[in-house]
């Protein structure tokens, strides 16, 4: 059998998402091998949102993590992570929820991002009232133009202001360059290096001003190999644990195993060339143009149209795919695909043996 096929496929309803722990572990080992010191890894868990996936990384000596939501941060507390950066600037009720996390999970060191004084003051006020101090990272805009302050004089002034603000303690800089994803590795590196220059200059200016040298958390999956070559920088890849078709095509310098596969079935034969599958918008990330999924056991199947619960594909001869035929597919973008599933099937030795809850798919776990 192919690695992704199931002996007990008749027990798995579709659409479904399957995960393969042994391949996940291989990917974890591969990402560890990419850095000299495992302490420089701070993987982003937005891809999996699964406690058991975090535990697999912890078992391999990875103890620092990044996340995007309070639920993901709580999931990491439940998993026993030692160091969790909420790579988001909390506003409104999120500040109180983050405070509750620090109280509920005292063995996990939580931190967050800030990019302006008003937000920092609001966060600090709640932590002062609770007689706590929250470590914070200055969020830098290095070209993503989404959040962050541009590294320079204003960023230095803000960092210095944070150092004198009771309730928070600036510990580092966060620079996400997710806008850099050129297929040509040399071009990607050139752009990444250029974006990093002002970050390094700001870190030096902070040190020159008499403050402790800031930690630097930089990059995502596309620029991970580049930042991995910088001494002391913490790197934050995330997709590696499952990988997907998009990165497989566009990041030729990174080789990870597919470790998450979609299961779908033929539910109707339209004519001699077209089939309808039960894989709609609600079952695979739909933010990208087609193809949003590539089928491992039917690579010739090309999407024609898609709606909420249906995917129409074109094949050479529908006689080869009667109603009930199982297709196994890899999504173009795995991260938002995982978020569409409440549970995933766990596969060992070509058998689905259990289910893992995608616990941080919800916006709230307990806090």
From TrEMBL:
Q: Which GO terms describe its biological process?
A: D-serine catabolic process
Which one of the record's GO molecular function terms can you name?
Answer: D-serine ammonia-lyase activity
Q: Which CDD domains match?
A: PLPDE_III_D-TA
For this protein, the record's SMART domains field holds: D-ser_dehydrat (SM01119)
Q: Name one Pfam family in it.
A: D-ser_dehydrat
Q: Where is the signal peptide?
A: none
Keyword vocabulary terms for this entry: Lyase
Q: Which residues form the D-serine dehydratase-like domain?
A: 259-348
Q: Which family does it belong to?
A: Belongs to the DSD1 family.
Under the heading PANTHER family, the entry gives: D-SERINE DEHYDRATASE (PTHR28004:SF2), ZGC:162816-RELATED (PTHR28004)
Return the protein name: D-TA family PLP-dependent enzyme
**Per the UniProt entry, what species is this protein from, by scientific name?**
Chitinophaga sancti
